[in-house]
Amino acid sequence: MKPKVLVISRDSWNETNNSGNTLSNLFQDWDSDRIANLYCRDEIPNNTICTNYFKISESLLFKKLFRKIKFAGLRLQKKFDITTIISTDDLKNDQTEKNIYDFFRNNRWYIFLWVRELLWKAVNWKSKELKSFLDDFKPEIIYSPSYDSFYMHEILFFVKTYTNAKVVLFHNDDLVTYRHYSWSPFFWINRFVLRQYMNKSISIADKNYCIIDEQSKVYKSIYNIDFNLLYKTGNFFSIPDPIHQQYPLKIVYTGNINCGRIDSIIEIGNALQKINVGFAKAKLYLYTANSISKKLKEKLIVTGNIEIMGKVSYDEIPGILANSNILLHVESFQKQQMYITSLSFSTKIVDYLEAARPILAMGWEHAASVKLLKDNKIAVTVNKINTLDENLDYLINNLDNLNSLGIKAWQFGYDNYNKNRVLKNFEKDLYNLIVKFNK
């Protein structure tokens, strides 16, 4: 029997976004009575795995602060696409609060971030309802991604102390090193405090995972402990049928456009404008759940070579990738953003590999995702903007090579991200933690 796992997440467990999709990918073989989710957003969960939830959000904290409610927490059950709220309050998918979250994501002003942290400090969210939720579920394992929000660490510390469950931390971004670029003293103050939280979280974790080898090596050198690798997985059962390569080619990008990636995408559109002189050889289709300002939309569509497709459900992604000719991955060339994403891995790359389509990767040569693709020769990589035209032109004008590049990418995915092997090892790791705990 699989261990009982409590997942702590900042967003709701929603398979239409990257974080939620990664959770579903890892826990796809868990029964609903063996898993629960504690999350911190005013959102309704949307996945096919978990049915048992507890929500603490800023709106509930505000209501508790002004004594409009007794407890800053809400228990939920979700079955067969119906959400039942076990509370006297109604759950509202508050669009106003969503707009506030979007504003904070786009404008990371430290005064706002610290005010939010003060709210979590000022209001008692350790309610008897939360304790009842934990008592009823009785988690054996606490699984949490590492976060740059201090309050997420405080939640982890409390749940660990209250339940004495084993802790498994998953590190997807660099939240530890000081290898960053900023002239803001507020950035460095925030970074220093975050480092203290990360130190404690890592120290109480019984298992630490990193998403990419480069990050694992750096973290191990700092903490002198093992950081195992945990990948998103794919169903690499058989190589997908090749697509007939003919003009105009469909270049597809799926995923986030934050951290300066949108600027790289705009550069792709400019390069396509030069290549498409005479007749249309290729067009870029942009699928993202991120909001795009009117000003950026104008920059994207001005050349007529980029189509903004918006948000789609994750179930639609495999079909979109299968009907593409070239898949695009980008990172930023802005100095600050380059360092922020230097140890990150984009989980959509696994989807790209599974699709067996050629990949164009654009970004700083030391960005871990781009470096992985380049070092293993499974993508055409662009490490400097001034080489974009040449590399994109090569890819578009050599149709005979496209399918072979896609097959090579698929084979790498089969060797490294195969669902059966990765999930089997992950489940074994969690089981071994429980065995040690019970001895």
Essential attributes:
single chain; 439 residues; alpha/beta; Rossmann fold; 2 domains; nine-stranded mixed sheet; six-stranded parallel sheet; 15 strands; 44% helix
Chart the SSEs and their pairings.
Blueprint: E1 5-9, H1 18-26, E2 35-39, E3 52-55, H2 58-65, E4 74-79, E5 82-86, H3 95-106, H4 110-122, H5 128-137, E6 141-145, H6 150-163, E7 166-171, H7 185-204, E8 207-210, H8 213-223, E9 228-229, E10 249-254, H9 261-275, E11 282-287, H10 294-301, E12 306-310, H11 317-322, E13 326-330, H12 335-340, H13 348-355, E14 359-362, H14 368-375, E15 380-382, H15 388-396, H16 399-416, H17 419-438
Parallel strand pairs: 1-2, 1-6, 2-3, 6-7, 7-8, 8-9, 10-11, 10-13, 11-12, 13-14, 14-15
Antiparallel strand pairs: 3-4, 4-5
Catalogue the unreliable spans: 87-94
Shape: globular
Task: Provide the CATH topology of the largest domain.
Answer: Rossmann fold
- Using the CA coordinates, give the radius of gyration: 22 Å
By CATH, the architecture of the largest domain is named 3-Layer(aba) Sandwich
Report on the biggest sheet.
9 strands, mixed
Structural class by sheet pairing and helices: alpha/beta
Number of domains: 2
End-to-end CA span: 17 Å
Helix content: 40-55%
| CATH homologous superfamily (4th level) name of the largest domain | Glycogen Phosphorylase B
Overall pLDDT score: 89
CATH C-level name of the largest domain: Alpha Beta
Number of helices: 17
